[in-house]
Amino acid sequence: MNGQIVSWFIFLAPWLLLLPLDSQRVKRFMPVSLFMAVLYTILFQMAEVWNWWDVHETNNIFFLTSISSFVYGFLIVVTLYMFYFTYPNLWLFLISNWIIDLIQALIISPFIFQRVGLYSMKSMSNFGLFVMIAVTVPIVYLYQRWQEGAFEEKNEVPLAELLLKRIFRHKNAVPRRQR
Questions:
Q1: d(CA 100, CA 179)
Q2: What's the predicted TM-score (pTM) here?
Q3: Three-state secondary structure call for residue 68
Q4: What residue ranges do the domains of the chain occupy?
């Protein structure tokens, strides 16, 4: 039962940490945080297939079978916090993330998560876990850069505006090209 409490705690409690933050900045970084959750969902599926670790269903949230509740609570919020306080400084973002990842993989994972029975490592070491986590950091940074670039296009006319102009353009109007 101890693992169940920890599992629910790391799933729900981190969301309360978003309350003091500026909601506009939270909205800015929520897509990359959700992307990180998708990335980790894939990693947990790979871990199940390749037997990297075993998520103990008895100590997990009932609707998550092979994925730790960590992914949909703590991870999303920590990712958001990292972007909130370090972005767009690439080196600050990378180094601070890698330090936190090192602590998570070499201290939190073996001495808290594994001890309370959330999961147990199988064919992957804790250092291997760190390397796997560390590889995701530049990927999510590049995703955020791409995401922001997608919304910063200059001289873009929204599709709805183009359609309305075409629909309501007068029949006798001179086409734009000939003006």
A1: 60
A2: 0.79
A3: coil
A4: 2-178
